[in-house]
Amino acid sequence: MKYNRHLLLGLILFQSGVSFAQPSGDSSSAVIEVYKNPALSADERAWDLVRRLTTEEKISLTLNSSPAIPRLGIPATDWWNEALHGVARSGQATVFPQAIGMAATFNTEGVLRSFSMISDEARAKHHLAKSQNSFKRYQGLTFWTPNINIFRDPRWGRGQETYGEDPHLTTQMGMAVVRGLQGDGTQKYDKLHACAKHYAVHSGPEWNRHSFDPGKMSPRNLWETYLPAFKALVTEAKVKEVMCAYNRYDGEPCCSNKELLMNILRNDWKFDDVIVSDCGAIDDFYRAKAHETHPTAAAASADAVYSGTDICCGSTYKSLGEAVQKGLIRESAIDTAVFRALRARFQLGVFDDDSLVSWSAIPYAVVESKAHIAQTLQMARESMVLLKNKNNTLPLSTTSTIAVLGPNAADSVTLWGNYNGFPTKTMTILEGIQSRLGAGKVLYEKASDYVGDDVVVSRMNECRIDGKPGFKVTVWNTKDFTGPVVSTSQLTTGLNYDSGGNTVFAPGVNLKNFSVRLESVLTPATSGPVTFRIKADDGFRLVLGGKEVLSYLRTGTLKDQEYVLQAEKGKPVSVMVEYYQLERDAAFNFDLGDARKLDYKGLAEKYRSVDAFVFVGGISPRIEGEQMSVDLEGFRGGDRTRIELPAVQLNVLKALKATGKPVILVNCSGSSMAFPWESENLDGIIQAWYPGQEGGTAVADVLFGAYNPAGRLPMTFYRSTDDLPDYENYEMKGRTYRYFKGEPVYPFGFGLSYTSFQYGKATITKTVLSADDSTTLRLSLKNTGKMAGDEVVQVYIVNKQDPDGPARSLRAYRRVSVKAGETVNVAIPLNNKAFEFFNPKTEKLEVVPGKYEVLYGSSSDRKDLKMLMVTVR
Questions:
Q1: Shortest CA distance to 213 belongs to which of 307, 285, 274, 159?
Q2: How many CB atoms lie within 10 A of CB 596?
Q3: Which of 32, 424, 657, 713 is 20–30 Å from 207 (CA)?
Q4: Where are the alpha helices (DSSP H) in 559-646?
Q5: Of these residues, 120, 273, 278, 701, which one is catalytic?
C-alpha cells in the first residue's frame, strides 16, 4: 500500500505524540504544542491538532460552518465565501464586471490585476471581522471561485459565471483568478484559497441538477473539453480547493465519484488539498426525487469521505458519527479529511497572531478605493463588444438628442450580475449617457419590461419616508418580525429577490426563517389607479392606510398578485409590505406603478424628434441564474428555453426603426443572444454583459467615442435556438465554434473597433518541431485608422491528423494596444501544449506527429484568419 508524505507524517505524529520546544532565542523554557508553533510546517501542525480532537470535534470540522473548539483555541469558521467578480455577500465591495464580461476582455493580465485587488479587499474585510471576534459566513479566507465549467450551451443560466465556451480561454482566465486570489507563493502564508468549481461535466440544466446525469462522456469530450481547465488549475496554478458538482456522472454523484475524484483528481493529478461539496450535494445522494443512490445520510457521508470529499457544505456530515458506529467508515478516513481542512487553515495563518501574517497589514481603506473603482471601470470598458456599426453610426455626437429606452437603462442591480457585492454607488447606463450630454438632451422611458407587453411604470419615486426617497427596509432573522434587527436599508427601485444560488437577502440575513418589512408613504403625483404587484415564497401582506388589502399567510410559491388603489393626487397613503420566509427557497418581488399595455407605434412616435435611439435591453440576472423560481416566457428555473431577444423588446426595436432614426441596441446579458433581425437592421449593437458598478460610464464611453471598444466574444452568437442540440446532451457535436457546422450571426472571438488593423505576414521560428518543442509566432500589426485602439490577436491550431477533432482550437491570444498610424511587432509563444490534442488511438491528450495548421487573426471565423503550417516529428 502506498502512502503520500502527508499521511506518513501524520502516522508518525499520531504514534509519537511529538512536542517541539520553542525556537531558540525565546527565553522561556516552556514547551509548546506542535500545532501552536508557527515555526513548524502546516503539515506537522495539522496532524498534531488532529490527534488532540475527539471524534465529535473532528466531525464538526468537516462542516462548512465549523464551530469553535475553545479548549484547543480553534476559532469558528465558515468555508463558504464568494468572490466571483468582487467580494460577494459581505457588504460593501468593489463590483467588477461579471465573469463572462471579464472573459470578453481577452486580457489575462487585467484579470490577474483585478483579482489581486479583490483579494486585498477580502483580506481587509476578514481582519476587520476578526478584530471584532466575528467569524460568520462570508467573512473567511476560502473563496469558492472561479467557476471554470465550459459554457457549452447558451441556455444555461449560470453560464454568466464562467469564462465562455473555449477550454483554453477558460484555463487562462481561471489560472489568473487563482493566482490573483492566492498570491504569488513567496509569502509565508497564502493570501486566500481559491476553489475550482464545479467538478466536473457540469453546465445545467438548473431545474433538475439534483437528479441529473449526463451519462458517461466520450473520452474525447471528457479530456479535450470538460477537464483541461481543472487539470491546469490543479497542476499549474496550484488551486487549494476543488468543489464537486451536484449532478451525477456515469451513474455516480460527482461528490462520491471514484473516477473523477480518486482516479483522476487525487491519483493522476496528485491533488492533496481540500475537496468541498457543493451546498446540499451530499443530501442529494439519499434525498427523495434527487439521486437516491444511497439509503441514508450516514451511508452517503461515509461514501463521500472515502471518495475524497473533505468538507460538506451543509449538515449531512453530522451523520458521520453514526457511520463510524455502524462500521460504514473508519475514523482514520475522517482524520485525513480533517487534516486537509486544518492544514489549509494553518497555511492561511488563521491560528497565528496577525503580526506574523503580512496580509493583515492591508488597510480597510482598499475596499472600494479609487484605484479599485478605476480598475473595474477599465475592465468594463475592455469587456464591451461592438457587434454592429452600420455606416459608422457610432460613436454618437455629444451634441445629439438621445431617447434612452429599455428595461436595463436605469437598472443598477442588473449591472451587478449574480454572486455580487454591494457598491456604494453604481453608475447606471442612463446616468452614464446623461453625464455625456447637456441638460435636456436625454429623454428617458423604460418602454418595456424584459418579457410580455404588460408594463408597470414604477411610481416608486413618489414614495418617501423619514425624508428619504423609496421604502425603508427592515429585516429580522426570525419569521415573525421579532428579535434584533439584522439589516436596514433604503429601497428606491422595484424589488426582485430570489434565493437561487443561496443568495442572502442582505448581509447578515439568514437564508431561511427571516422576515422583511417595507414601509413608506405614497404621495401620488396624479389621480387614478396605482397597481401594487407582489410575488412571494412564502407569505406576505400588503397594508395601505393602515388597512390590510392583500395577503397570503401560508408557505409555498405564490405567483404575481395585484391590488389596484384608486389614488387621489397629492393625498398621502401609508404603505407597508411584510414578507416572511419559512422553508426551502425564498422569493420576494414588489413594485407599484401604472399598469398598461405597450403601444409600440405610440411609443416610437412620442420620440420621433430625437437624433437617435439607444435601447438598453436584453435580460437580467433576476431571470437568468442559478436554480431560480422564475418561470417566464423563454425562461425556466433560471435557464433559458430560447436564446432570441424577448418578443416585446424586438417589437419595440422594430417600431423605433420604422421612424427612420438610428437605433442602437445595448444588450445586457450573461449569455449569447440570437440577433438575426437585429444584425441586419439595427445601426449599432453593443454587447455590454453585466458590467459592474461602473458599467454605465463604460457604455457611455463607447457610445460617444471616449473609449475605442475591443472586447471579443467568448462564446458563439447563434442565429436561432434551432441551431442548438438537445440541451441535456453533453456531447460536443454541433456545439461551440469548435464543432458547430452552421453559420453564426457573430462567431467566437468576434468584435469590431472604431479603427482598423492590418496584419503583416507572420513568421514562425520553428516550422518543424519535436513533441516537446516550443516555437514563436511573430507578426507586424498596423493601426491603419485615425483612432488609437486595441486589437486581440488570436491563434488557432488545427490537428490535421484527426478529422473527427475540433474544426480549430484557440491556443494563444494577445491583446495589443496600437496608436493611430503606428505599427507594432507582436510575438506570441506557442509551447508544446499548444499542439496537444486528443489521440483517439491512446484516448489521451498528446502531441501526435504530423501536420498542423497555425491560424492567426481577429476572430475564429476562417475568413478572418491567415495560415501557416507546422510539422511535428
A1: 285
A2: 12
A3: 713
A4: 600-606
A5: 278
* pLDDT tens-digit readout, 217-266: 999 999 999 999 999 999 999 999 999 999 999 999 999 999 999 999 99
pTM exceeds 0.85 for this model: yes
pLDDT digit string, tens, across residues 572-612: 999 999 999 987 778 888 999 988 889 999 999 999 999 99
What's phi and psi for 290, nearest 5 deg?
-105, -140
Residue with cell string 493601426: 783
Three-class secondary structure assignment of 777-829: EEEEEEECCCCCEEEEEEEEEEECCCCCCCCCEEEEEEEEEECCCCEEEEEEE
CB neighbours of 607 closer than 8 A, spacing ≥ 6? 403, 405, 443, 445, 613, 659
Which residues 6+ apart lie within 8 Å of 599 measured at CB? none
Question: How distant is the alpha carbon of residue 750 from its chain centre?
Answer: 22
Which residue intervals of 424-573 are DSSP H helices?
429-436
Is 560 annotated in the active site? no
Answer yes or no: 611 catalytic: no
Q: Which of 578, 624, 678, 836 is catalytic?
A: 624
Residue 691 to residue 618: CA distance in whole angstroms: 13
Asked if 407 and 450 touch (Cβ cutoff 8 Å), the reply is yes
C-alpha distances (whole Å) from 415 to each of 399, 617, 670 are: 27, 12, 10
Separation between Cα atoms, residue 748 and residue 855, nearest integer Å: 14
Could you give all domains of the chain from N- to C-terminal order, each with its CATH number? 459-502+511-597 (2.60.120.380), 755-872 (2.60.40.10)
Strands 385-389 and 850-857 come out as: unpaired
Rounded Cα distance, 52 and 40, in Å: 17
